[in-house]
Structure formats: structure tokens, C-alpha cells
Amino acid sequence: MTETWHAALHRLQRSGIPHVLATQVTSAGSTPREPGARMVVTADEIFDTLGGGTFEWQTIQAARDFLRQGSSGFHLEAFSLGGRSGQCCGGFVNVLLEVFPGASSYIALFGAGHVGREIAKLSAPLPWHIDWYDSRNDMFGIQDQQQPRLHCHSLTNPQESVSALRPYSHVLVLTHNHDEDYALIAALIQRPDIASIGLIGSDSKWVSFQSRLKRDGYTPEAIQRVRCPIGTVHDTKLSNKTPYAIAMTVVTELLWLTDHPTPDQTRGLEPAALRALFNDTATHQS
């Protein structure tokens, strides 16, 4: 059975896949469908219909253009079915395109121990895509693998796993093995397109890692990209060392690192656009 627009919208929202909800908000004269008709558009799929024809094809093209441009938010498109769309209906339609960019940030989490599991749980409601790695294949449960924005991977080769990370990912390293941690950090600091690198551990662990990285020929600039310890708030450390408390500070730190203030111009439709929308509708109905 073909997926309806509302079923597709629910699935895409949960999975963090970029998509556009197109809603016919006004119509005048003869039009294929009435206000309230909706369809969902992704980069390669379409769910439901606004009536077909050139007008719908133009709506799909506009939606995909906004997805390619990363133009999230609201966009209003006006169609004269006898003019812009060249259809014989002769009516007039306004379509509201709501562009959802999908996951707002990409997180790579290396380590599925106590702290890693708490970070994954606390991050679940947030609009993040998380790639979660561990070299112990039995660390991931069925429930972990069913979360729509959480993707579990086997960590067999640190260099290969780091090479496969998405550009601009925020990375946390907290495996059960110091040598594995070191191999990951050494690979990560060689990727300039990684947004941030965090390493769990004490001050003494980081001093040891820095000495080792310097001996292996890594530059001070590359080494300084690493945050260790992670989850430090206001340059102070919590006395509470429970996995949940540590995870809370780490997720808080990630929220600051991934925060992207919304520009004023993308806060909604401009008043002038709304006035034009209602004026055009009144003109075509009179």
C-alpha cells in the first residue's frame, strides 16, 4: 500500500531524513484540489498528491531546490494555473512549503559502556543523528538498533571507522580500552573537517596522551583540538562521578557545541508575503 503523507511525515520526522511538507493553503477558480491538500517530498520520493499536472511538478521542483539549498523554514509559492503552470484549469493556488532539514547535527559516539549508554539515552529526544561504535558486538541491544536516529556499528578498525565519519560530525571517544581511545584520537586529529573531538578521562590520562601524540609527530595545533576531560561546565568538574551525571554534563556540552541560532529572516513568513497571499485570494474570488 502506498504510504500516506501523514504516515510518511511521521516516519521522516522520527528518522531525521530531510523532507518538505507541501500544503495547498488557498485556491480560487478551478483547481485540481481544494485547500488542505498535502503532499510530502524528499530528495527522491513523493507521498500523496496535490492533483498532478505541471503545477504539482513545479511544487516538487521548488521543494527539492529548497532541500538542496538547506533553506529550512516556511516558503510560499503562488501558481496561476493558466499562466505559470500552463494548465487549462485557469485557477489560482498558493502552496506553503515547510522545509525540514532533517537531523540538525551528526554525533559519533565511540564506546557503549555505562557512560556511552547514558549519553545515547539522553540524546534520543534531540534532533541528532548518532553513529554509535563499539568493538564488542554484544554491547548493542535490539532496542538500540530500533531507534530511528541511532545507528549502531562494529568498531573493527579505528582508522577506517574515522575515515567513514560524516564531515562536521561532533565526536566523543569513550571506549573501554585506552589503546583504542588513542588510535581513535590519532585518526580524528588528522581530519580537519571534524567539528569537535571529545575524550573521556582524567587530567593525567590526557597528559599521557599528549606526550604520546607529540612523540608520534602530531603538531600542538592538532592535539589542541581535543577536549579532555569532556563535560566540564564553567571550568569546574562535578564531584558526582555516576555515569548518568557525567552523561548529563556531556550532553549539555554538546548542546552548546551544536547550537545554531536561527536567523531572524527564517523565523516565519514575512508579513508582506501574508498580506499578498490574502490580497491575491480576495482578488481571484471577487
Automatic annotation (TrEMBL):
It comes from the Bacteria. Pfam families: XdhC_C, XdhC_CoxI. InterPro entries: MoCofactor_Util/Proc, Xanthine_DH_XdhC, XdhC_CoxI, XdhC_Rossmann_dom. Residues 108-254 form the XdhC Rossmann domain. Residues 13-73 form the XdhC- CoxI domain. PANTHER family: ALDEHYDE OXIDOREDUCTASE MOLYBDENUM COFACTOR ASSEMBLY PROTEIN, XANTHINE DEHYDROGENASE SUBUNIT A-RELATED. This is Xanthine dehydrogenase accessory protein XdhC. It comes from Vreelandella lionensis.
